[in-house]
Write a structure and sequence with these properties.
The complex is a heterodimer of chains A (452) and B (418). Chain A has 452 residues and is an alpha+beta fold. Chain A contains 8 helices and 23 strands. In chain A, the strands form 6 sheets. Chain A has a 5-stranded mixed beta sheet. In chain A, strands 5, 6, 9, 10 and 11 form a 5-stranded antiparallel beta sheet that branches. In chain A, strands 18-17-21-22-23 form a 5-stranded antiparallel beta sheet, with no helix packed on it. Chain B folds into 3 domains: 104 residues, no CATH class; 138 residues, Cytochrome Bc1 Complex, Chain D, domain 2, CATH 1.10.760.10; 72 residues, Cytochrome c-like domain (Cytochrome Bc1 Complex, Chain D, domain 2, Orthogonal Bundle). The chains are: A alpha+beta (452), B mainly alpha (418).
Amino acid sequence: MNKIDNVSEKELEIISEVTEQASRRDFFKKTAAYSMSALAAASVVAPVSVNANEHIEANAEDDPNIMEEKPWSLKFGDDVTVNKYGQPSPYEHNVTRRTTPILSSGNFRASIAVTPIQDLNGIIVPNGLFFNRHHGGTPTINPNEHRLMIHGLVEKPIVLTMEQLKRYPNVSRIHFLECPANGGPEWRGPQFNSIQFAKGFMSCAEWTGVYIKDILKDLGLKPEARWMLAEGIDDSHMGRTIPVDKVLDDAMIVWGQNGEALRPEQGYPIRVVVPGWEANLCVKWLARLEFASEPFYAKEETSKYTALKYTGKAIQHFYANEVNSVITSPCPEKPWTDLKKGDMIEIEGLAWSGMGTISTVDVSLDGGKNWKQASLKGLVLEKAWTRFSIMHEYTGAPLLLSSRASDDAGHIQPTVKNERAAVGIEGVYHRNGIHTWAVDAKGVVTNVQILS
Amino acid sequence: MYKSYHKKLVASTLLASVVFLGTACNASNDTKKVAKSEVKAVAVKMDTTGFDKRVVDAVGPANALVSDTVKKTYGYNGKLVIDGGVTYPIVNGKTGAYYVDPEAHTTAFNKGKTATANEQKAWDIDVMPDGTGLPEGSGSVEEGDDLYEEKCQQCHGDFGAGNGLYPKLTMGNAYEEQKTLKNQRTHPDDDGPKRAFGSYWPYASTLWWYIKTGMPHQAPMSLTTDEVYALSAYIMSINELTIDGEELDDEYVLDRKKFLKLVMPNVDGFEPKINGPKGEDNAREYFNNPLNYGNGVRCMKDCFEGAPVVQKIKHAISDFTPSLNSAKTLPKVKADVKPAGPGKADYEAACAVCHATDAMGAPAVGNKKAWAATLKKGIDKVYDNAINGVNGMPPRGGSSYDDAKMKQVIDYMVGASK
């Protein structure tokens, strides 16, 4: 019982610290120490131990993982004070956001970190893995000194502290946020042999905040107000123009992400969420909303986030991320190399639409020549990730696995060929053509496009 | 709009309350009704006027919806949803899948304080095409050139030609390059469309706003109004733009009046047209016609002839940070990290903008190989290059650090790259 006594003493030390700051310092130091010792303990090679099973003689076909005791089953684990803020198992350390220089504008402060959707379950992305794009680095904002100003064409311009903002009645909504450049590097053909990079410029979370229309009730929006600028107060001072139509429909200011405060990378203390629309419109580190009669033409709605068509004209204010889908299992990171002929296996994926709710998803095994309707799985919510599933008997024959989603606004994912016919190949943004994985005879999965 | 919005809101709440009460009184009937209400899709005739036949053939029809819980039109103005999608009005106390407290959305809460005129002035930093927010001031092309070399060239390259992955500020004569926007790189050797400030952006107000509030990248909001005019003049000159028919030579002095006279070559290059009182309606019409951006068809059998044409990866991008790895292993435990030397903060402030990655061509801090190569010249030469400039790097990396500070920064960078 010595160990427990020691821990208790440490605990008492922490509790008895006089100042809060000293206590915090000490806490972090100790947490770090504990984590390191936990790692060290876990990496010790397990001594072969027979213990309770000593009377059983193991045969060759017996799994030693069952026949031998493991070190973690023979001694104390960590006590409840070790991770004051819980962390994933150290064995999950490869599950991270990732980036590549080509997605940056010169440095990693104006860059993007993509979500490992190959490793995720369900429709909620853990906050630490949420897709992240910013234009001037992640700021550390003191919420006590942060303000939200709402002005322009309103009768009563106001300033809110964060405490005041959170006094409005809140709503919680599950919505995906997708960079409109998701899949954008592949307009002219596949380039990433990875689902994380081919489709990981997006995530989905439960957001808690206030509808902007609920704040406007008090302010008197003037009749000539047609556009709203949302602006952040980080290094990039990024702004975007949002039509009043959307503001009066479902646009939100949020402070909560999956039950806790927004992460700094997601705009702490507050950001805009414009459900279903380009995530770039969901301005982070939000400080200012200004209403005007004319659009603002901010830097990220002219120099970027405009989709150039084959006609030479570019689509601006390209709001909604169109209906889209991708098979997440199998994928290049999660191949079928362990399957045997005759194995039954689930083909699973994600579908989403910024224009409404997913209605159907079809799956093709032959590159889109013939299709079967898949089942939707779990919660089916508007402007949210939706899981789909279809059972498959693995035969070992090469496959071209495609998925095609439709939404309740009546939109259907186009083929790559048809999308190229409609807009060309230089658009960069809003690519939602049908995605296909090639599965070879060994079960290896690669990224391809079908041009039929 | 406020008044009508408010009226409609009250009306819809009343309606919602009535329905809600109805549900409470006659729950079983209503539940059935809700369960039965299906979304019916009706094909809408798309206006194909002016579209290429290939586009019309390639795009599937848009569908209108008939349902209690999904609408193609907004409740508060009766107009089509602006993005071509649907909206979920509050029906039976729910919006879509979510229950709501209707009172929460009709009560006035009156939080916060009135924003003072000074507060609004301090934060109102946007600059609009009509000159709203553009202050009086002036600067010459020559002054801009000097400023550019001092503060911008290390990232944006000589004469705005770009550097590594940092954006190009010009791709040549704006009027000529604007004509390339139709280019499609269907073959590897094709020239693509040239999208730079001069050839692509519709309004120069965006440039002014961008420079003033976002540049230099590591020190935004640090330039004076006159400096922003000077830099704008320089960037206009390297894009070979003209104002009132006049070329912007070195002596050209740009001021507010001249700035607002500049007509960008690609001002009409964007759709839908969002300016003016019809702006929102134009967007509405545009996004409700999928011919403008594509839509599929739900074919189920024999959807094309012959075997599928498969396009494989030709040029794979795989320099991922960190590299892909799905193994369930323990992380390598790093040896004790030495405390950062005194140069770290200064490095972060002035040098990291280029040296944080290899993308700039500058040796990235942490890249052992690149720094081993750099150090072959000897540490004194490295100090000397850092202080006096080398290749794309300006003297002192564009900072105002003295020699001693520069050496501390180098020592930190070398130490962190061993």
